[in-house]
Amino acid sequence: MYVCSCFGITEQQVKQHVDGGACTPRQIASACKAGTDCGSCVRRIQAILGRGSCPRRDLADRNEPVLADLEDAA
Prior knowledge:
This protein is mainly alpha-helical. It has five helices and two strands; from the N terminus they run ββααααα. The radius of gyration is 11 Å and the shape is globular. Mean pLDDT is about 80; it is low at about 55-60 and about 65-70.
């Protein structure tokens, strides 16, 4: 099932990034651009992230770039 229609990102791909250490929507966006165009998939990404646990989520939130920085880099 597609999570991000803009970039053709599937739920399985998002889960692979989560398994690789992504804990926030911003980290998912950094890994595959999902959530950086129209933004309609961000809630779905949040739901996927909410199913698992990320012991380093608080630390990750403090150290990641803001969405505007990701857009500037693109």
